[in-house]
Queue: 3 jobs
Job 1
Amino acid sequence: MAEELTNVNANPEGEGATSRHFIEREIDKDLKEGVYDHVCTRFPPEPNGFLHIGHAKSILLNYGMAKEYNGKFNMRFDDTNPTKEKSEFMDAIIEDVKWLGADYEDRLFYASDYFDQMYEDAVKLIKKGKAYVSELTADEMREYRGTLTEPGKNDPNRDRSVEENLRLFEEMKSGKIEDGAMTLRAKIDMASPNINMRDPIIYRVAHMSHARCGDKWCIYPMYDFAHPIEDAIEGITHSLCTLEFEDHRPLYDWVKTECEYQNPPRQIEFAKMYLNNVVTGKRYIKRLVEDGIVDGWDDPRLVTIASLRRRGFTPESIKMFVDMCGISKAQATAEYAMLEYCIREDLKLKAKRMLAILDPVKLVIDNYPEGEIEYLEIENNKEVPEMGTRKIPFGKELYIEREDFMEEPPKKYFRLFPGNEVRLMNAYFVTCNSFVKDENGVVTEIHCTYDPETKGGDSPDGRKVKGTIHWVEASEAFRAEVRLYENIIDEEKGVYNEDGSLNLNPNSIKVIKDAVLEPELKNAQPYDKFQFVRNGFFSVDSKDSQPGAPIFNRIVSLKSSFVLPKK
């Protein structure tokens, strides 16, 4: 039975102690039994792409455990594969981790910091008769490895002498061996039911320049060999990994034991966080970027952490989402609607409620004084009075949403139509008298009269109106680009086609070039967030905005399909 997490940073004593998840209970046990006297965790990404929403769970869990137990949290790049790693990815990962609030202080490390020690450990294994140089090709290696139901066969070079293995390994290190011609394998058990223990490769030859080490090395350690050594050197106590590493744990333990590390780390696995109908695979994102379908790894339609940040999600909303998903051993899939619920919950009491018209049509108040502008007071957020008020201009010509007017309305349509009276939000009652169409039959102008006695939105004679619409005054408004996003995946068809290609949604982005916004929004800065009344929550794009010309990304609409589960 999977144990779920109600709070990734639950208090170890007192309130919350009864809902502690299985990792907390394992750490409690280790500390109580004296296995460790402190806690040190780490987040060890490979810098071969941007992090995505699933990585946020690992970051927040590892950091949360260190913080909960007054321990330390390390950041470490697993830069053991120079063929795929880029400094661009390292910079992005560092920004993501810091943005999520995972403070690694001055403990930023690299696997390459330990290449000398890893080489010495490999030599130690050879001398102990626990490693040997193999000359099998990749295809032969697969053939000798066996299957899930059949044991593997011993490598023809498995019983080489220690001296010959040391000589050949030195030749590998000194550049005398071509790529793919030799590997160093751990000598464990070719009949093991766990394929990971069938003499895995621990070093391969790769004549490539390394971003940090240059040309010092032409042999590089494999992840399963490097990772436990990195953890041991740094004094990690609990190596928290996702569930696919569970079958690798015996090899993790074998390496730290045979390399004779004292107070070795303990690996504990938890279930990944899966999100429905999103793209997280690095090779798929890379293809979308290279094909120009998205404008980078941080395109707001993706779920990389950089994409979510650019779209307007907050660290607090990501933490809430991770918390709601929980920590367990059972694989589960979350709905994107739950992530949207979290950002709505976070912003509804933080964001100012602003006036913005996305599909504008002009409204003219025929009996309003020509050339006059008055300034009306409006609350910044009705649910949070302490956020104060602001002044907005009001005049003879306004813009309203095109959907707020109908020439021939259906029943129960309470907005503007000929002869109907509605409330202009925080302003006056107006009655529609006429409208103008162009040669294509499109309404271009709506004419109304207003009741000056209804200032503020109430009538002194007590009459009521059923419809309230928002508006923006025309002369002081500014035009802005607004981007409306949908899932980049066609949700009805699923993520992948039978051939492995992506089912892309052709309507994943709608760009509005001439939205009409109230004047205060012209000075909005990158990452500023607002609620556009009736249209959703929006954030200023950090990549394409210019001073005085912000571009707004819709983070999420106001309507939610997510229902909070009953406790």
Job 2
Amino acid sequence: MTHHWTRRSFLLSAAALTLVPADPAVAAQELPGFPDDVALYRSAYRNWVGEITAVGLWACAPIDGEQAVAAVNWAWRNGWRVRARGFSHGWSPLTITEGTSSDAPVLLVDTTAHLTDTSLDGASAVRAGAGVSMESLLTFLEGHGLGLTAAPAPGDLTLGGALAIDAHGSAVPARGEERLPGQTYGSLSNRVLSVTAVVWDEASGAYVLRRHERDEADAAALLTHLGRALVTEVVLRVGANSNLRCVSRTDIPAAELFAAPGGGGRTLASYLDEAGRVEAIWFAFTEFPWFKVWSVEPTKPLTSRRVTAPYNYPFSDNVPTLVADLAGRMVADAAWYLAPVLGNAQADAAALGLVTTLSADIWGPSKNTLLYIRPTTLRINANGYAVLTRRAQVQRVVSEFTDFYRERVAAYAALGRFPVNGSMEIRVTGLDHPADAELDGARAPLLSALRPDAEHPEWDTAVWLDVLTLPGTPYAEKFLRELERFLLDRYDGTDALTRVEWSKGWAYTEDAVWDDGEVLGTAVPASLGDGAWEQAAGILDRLDPHRVFGNAFLDRLFG
């Protein structure tokens, strides 16, 4: 595919989506019979990195679930497909596929305009519209003394979008730590108590709004639905908020942090035992990762800086000029050999920025240290996988993968090829144990990468592995395919298991992503085990037998 970027345009925040109010006469001609009370307009679509775009699609913004139902029934009767659209902060083609034209029978349903109401539902639950942003949700919870154990770093995710792909943070119990009431170390999907969605009703012969409780079989497919459903509202289990301290370090070499187990030293696993919440960001061709450690601290440590708002790393949120110019030159001039220079520039910017902004040691309500990515950060591609393993084997997985990554980067560089110019990112979470929902009969999300494996109850932890690189980087797909094959082959379910991260890149061929037939058709379904894939697919087809909620990629994925 061909893209036309300027040096800086794709690096900074995406331009606001174009919203063009519909001419009633044109709308009546192109969408005859569309519900009069549902606002229609023309809209562009652009995913996070701008590699999947569409211009001039018809879109609507229902004010409530009933208007969403009316729009869906119109789409079904007229042979259109419906795609829920939030903030489009994702990479994979779960919403819109590349090449979708303005005249395609695709209706975007914008959840962010009106489906954003938030209210408490008892002492330890929150009712929220699918279009509410994670930042708004966490702010609401904080105002009531509530919070989450962990959360994704971007605040510009809709709750509905986050649940669709089992979004997660980075947290496992520290040594001696007990799970607090209302909390979970798994994904956001594991917090759902009920989900309200637009589903097919056989009796009435139409789509209707229906609430599914967590203990119902159908709910298990809706908790992580990959865009095969339209969710309007959820109720989530939440717990008391915590104050978190986040200490950033750039003084531990990768060789020590990611060392093979058994040698001692400042390893990732040692910090995991100490605090339970870690993240490593290792820029390509550098030796000292940006390593974050969160710890629960009820009172402010003496050396920490109190933070009263999120996004406390401005050097990351606003791309430094040197980094932007280097990345722009690499793309515009095909100067991919500058990858080592870019990696070191990013590492230097982080190390210096942590000092100059006094953000190396910050403390405050959980939201203010968990949210740190804004839309103005570097727009870059990412692949993603979760490796299910025993907690005691986390360091082994990290060491084996980083060793393979380092060896392949060096081998490519020796040939004058630089397929990676961003960072590797490592996070660690618990699994989606349904008991955490504190609801009798709660079911595990069928399609969550954190679904416990029935045959291996000893696997209690997931290591999340992401590799980032600029759009259009030569040899990237071939390189990332090698990483994927390593993960699938090495952690094949014998002593650990690889699953894909839905929102990011996977199923690589040598020149494309989301295209490997064996991964799409065999590896992905098999990785969920216990017939979960087939069960979920059957439920989603029954709830949407006309596949109104789908696209060409989902058709291929679900068969």
Job 3
Amino acid sequence: MSAGTDTLPDRSLLSQDRPLAIAILAMGGQGGGVLADWIVALAESSGWVAQSTSVPGVAQRTGATIYYIEMIAAKPDAAPVFALMPTPGDVDVVLAAELMEAGRAVLRGLVTPGRTTLIASTHRSFAVVEKEKPGDGTGDPAAVVDATGFAARRTIAFDMEALAGRSGSVISAAMFGALAGAGVLPFPREAFEATIRAGGRGVDASVAAFRAACDRAAVPGTEAVARTPEKRFEALPASAGHPDLDRLVARIAQEFPAASHPMLFAGVKRLTDYQDPAYADEYLTLLARLHAEDLARDGAARGCAFTLAAAKHVAVAMAYDDPIRVADLKVRSRRFERVRREVAAGPDQIVTTTEYMHPRMEEVCGTLPRALGAWIEARPALFSRLDRLVSRGRRVRTGTIFWFLGLQAVSALRRVRRGTLRHARETAHRDAWLATALDVLRTNYDLAVEVLECRRLVKGYSDTHARGESKFERVLSGLPLLVGRDDGAAWLRRLRQAALADEDGTALDGALKTIATL
């Protein structure tokens, strides 16, 4: 997708004796209302007549608010009649604050090849329907890129959120700049800037984001790359001089093949942050044993696929989510700083966050010392009484001293995490899973790799973790029927994909029945 094939902005629509129609698709917190107000103020300050309406989307990121603006040069003794909603085929400019919203604008017919200039940010803000999938439910950005390429008269697309963030502003300022740089409105750049300055809040940051986006949009052929969740590593990163990481990085370089270095480094960083360097060292010791088994089964000729899969999934398994981890993440200074950036808070503004937490007695027992947690669980009456006290929703204001210190105390339990009941169970589950993979490795290399890949089914904590672990066990229940088959790896992969297809396991049930009839 590029900024367009024209070397100069298309101004043919501006000469027509009809209102200019602009549609903005933005989600909560992206400043769509501010952007609409800026456009109206810009038009009115230049002697035009403008009207803005909006239709809000529903909550939890299942739909964006559509702001619709019509404007026309003021005429003496004549009052224009404006529409309240955009009509497919009659929109001159569409501004989409997120890549998939650009796709939705195309599907709604708001973007047409003979008329519409599409200005879109290529970043992603995942919808609830994408997040709720057990597996990867993210929409395909390539489909949107391809669609907008031929659906619009001209397309300007780049990561406006990242650009705004670098300026300390929000995406609405960058979109306003892209609109100015596109040259589709008959107003000078200075008028755009004057409109921002008239707002009086966050002016410097907004102007900086506006200018950067305006310059970017004005460049013909600007490339737009749709950002995907996938991350690639090209080489073993530096450890920034941390002595423990230096030692672990040296161990990675000495003991493992180069292809595995980036993933192993990511695992070491994750586990050091999660627990401590000794825990990351334990991870490398475990991986060294698995790599030796891999080489003994001619893994080098297969690109050490077994080692690469283990490097990823063992690290995730060892960094399981528990109340200690949740509390640790919620009280980190980086998180408070990120929230302030996201809401564009000024240095003199107070920002507080309210978390909704619903602990269960299972999580409490898992955080206790192994013997004590098991003792409570073995007494159903006591467990039930304690659960009635614990298992209820709480709104936790992490900006208050009481709740901050409480979460800080829970996060400090990471020092004794290895002695908790949850850690004992996670370790036992991990070891049993790896023992199964190693047993399969002796007879079917590809199937053993798929056994490791099945660990992606287990994620989260509380009910989410329980459901994932149940699916994991059900998928591996079909393993005895597949070990002796040449296509066993392909069938286990199908079982895993079926388990990720829906939450209630209907697809998995059907796949297991199919396996049983082979």
